Amino acid sequence: MSDSAHSDRSDPLGLRGVVPPTITAFDADGNLDPEQTAAHARYVVDGGAHGVFPLGTNGEGPLLTPDERESVVDAVVDAVGDDVPVIAGVGAPATRQAVANAERAVATGADGVVGVTPYYYPLDDAAAVAHYERLTDAVDVPVYVYHIPGRTGNHLSLDAWEAIAALDGLAGLKDSSKDVPWLGQAMARAPDATYLVGSDSLLEAGFGLGADGAVSAVANVFPELVVDCYEAHSAGDDAAVRDVQRRVYTIRDAIKTGPYMAGVKTALDILDVPVDPGPLRAPLRTMGEDDRAALADRLAALGLR
After folding, report:
1. How far apart, in whole angstroms, are the C-alpha atoms of residue 94 and residue 42?
2. Closest Cα partner for 212 from 191, 196, 228, 192?
3. Which of 16, 24, 134, 160 is the most exposed place for a label (fewest CB within 10 A)?
4. Domain extent at residue 204
5. Catalytic residues
6. CA pair distance 305, 302, nearest whole angstrom
7. What is the C-alpha to C-alpha distance for residues 253 and 116, in angstroms, rounded to an integer?
């Protein structure tokens, strides 16, 4: 989709392109490392990223304290906020906490906030809409919905999404449902919203549907590659998009080696990049030596180290 296609969109940030869900770095003792967290945001922006999304799933947002969350936003805004939009994750199971997170993120300088659908307790449509209404009422920056039913246990209905998209201040949707028909219908129901595809396995499919960009875990390690995919799409080069998507498939498979979500930080540590990501925060588990060696071998076989 060309840039001109975004001129009529309702998103004040005009968010599009590659928006990595940046990591939160910890030191060897498991304490927050703001300097290295900022270094990672700088790394992906220097690699061409069009925005950054701290405190998402890859950012281990739900495992951080409110003070730590504020420190992450402060560090990332200071590092890259003059160059690209910073949309901070603010999701929580309780609406009251999500609102507090959002207010604090905005006060710290975030350009927008991303609210994951509340998790643990099941939500009906009315509860989901009311949650996002409270969130949009609380802040004066764009609010994005983060739809990841595989993690939250709550799948937004199309009716709920249409009602949420109509809220003042609601700018867009990051869809990690991997449900392509749902995403296509969501776009048809609310065509003015910004849409970010949330799975590296669906870059080609999402762009083909008309998504404005992607929140890509692979871009946390190889930002230039995913930017190439988006730029090929913007240029109408479908063959190049397909070629890059196939390469992303292999990298995605490689970084899924070992414990859940450990691949991104381990790959950053293996590669010669100016970021020291440190361990994951418990209960997430850092890779052991065998898994680390297997990932290093796979990256080497792909010509990536």
Report:
1. 32
2. 196
3. 134
4. 15-240
5. 57, 120, 146, 174
6. 8
7. 25
- CA neighbours closer than 13 Å in the CB half-sphere of residue 260: 8
Q: Is 158 a domain residue?
A: yes
**E strand or H helix at 145, and its extent?**
strand 143-147
174 three-state secondary structure: strand
Tell me, yes or no, whether 134 lies in a domain. yes
> 54 near 76, Cβ under 8 Å?
yes
Asked whether residue 118 carries a pLDDT value surpassing 90, the answer given is: yes
- What pLDDT, in 10s, does the model give residues 26-76? 999 999 999 999 999 999 999 999 999 999 999 999 999 999 999 999 999
CATH of the domain at 77: 3.20.20.70
Token pair listed for 206: 């999402």
For the chain, how many structural domains are there in total? 1
Q: Which residue has the tokens 């925060």?
A: 281
Query: What's the rounded Cα separation, in Å, for the pair 142 and 211?
Result: 18
DSSP symbols for 12-49? TT---EE-------B-TTS-B-HHHHHHHHHHHHHTT-
- Considering only CA atoms, give the Rg of the chain: 18
- Token readout for 180 is 């392509």
In a domain, 41, yes or no: yes
For residue range 151-197, list pLDDT tens digits in order.
999 999 999 999 999 999 999 999 999 999 999 999 999 999 999 99
Q: Say if 8 falls within a structural domain.
A: no
For 185-195, b where at least 16 C-beta lie within 10 A, e where not — what string? Answer: ebbeebeebbb
Q: Does the structure show a pLDDT above 90 at 234?
A: yes
